[in-house]
Amino acid sequence: MTANSPEKIETPAHEKKLLAVDMDIFVGTYDIDFAGHVSNIVYLRWFEALRLKIFEKYYPLKQVMDDGYLPIITSHFIEYKRAVKLFDAPHGFMWIDSISKARIKFKGEVRVNGELATQAVHEGIFLSSETMKPTKIPPLIIELCTSSDTTKKQ
Fold first, then answer.
1. Residues 6 or more apart from 55 whose CB is under 8 A from it?
2. Could you report the per-residue pLDDT of 45-63, keeping only the tens digit for each?
3. Regions of the chain where pLDDT drops below 70
4. pLDDT at 148
5. CA–CA dist 92, 23 (Å, integer)
């Protein structure tokens, strides 16, 4: 999926959300563009913070890297549904949507007062820190995503 992808991002109610996290998001004056709403580039920062929160909660990034893996995002797709403005109180959500032997797909949302403002899909891979070449998804991530304790329907 690329930035020009026409694919709609939808999360069916029955979809499993693996390793889900959420967080309140602060909107600062520095996030606002000339049109009076949050600049598109800010959403990338917010979604990056949410991905890092997944690592923080389930497999700390330092440990991932100490284990020889480098997480790399290979594509972003963001769909803006409604503007987020200065005094809004957005709340972000992110989860792993799917994993394969070598790819991982994150989905995320930003909501304001429960209303969907933005959806995103971020796809990635892991590189081996030794070879700097793509490698399989770390076994701990596979294990966490298949564990009944961290797999839940939301």
1. 61, 64, 71
2. 999 999 999 999 999 999 9
3. 1-15, 148-154
4. 53
5. 5
3-state SS of the chain is: CCCCCCCCCCCCCCCEEEEEEEEECCCCHHHECCCCEECHHHHHHHHHHHHHHHHHHHCCHHHHHHCCEEEEEEEEEEEECCCCECCCCEEEEEEEEEECCCCEEEEEEEEECCEEEEEEEEEEEEEECCCCCEECCCHHHHHHHHCCCCEEEC
Domains located in the chain, CATH noted: 16-153 (3.10.129.10)
| pLDDT value of residue 86 | 95
Which pTM was predicted? 0.85
> 85, 110, 90: which is closest to 9 by C-alpha?
110
Distance CA 94, CA 104 (A): 13
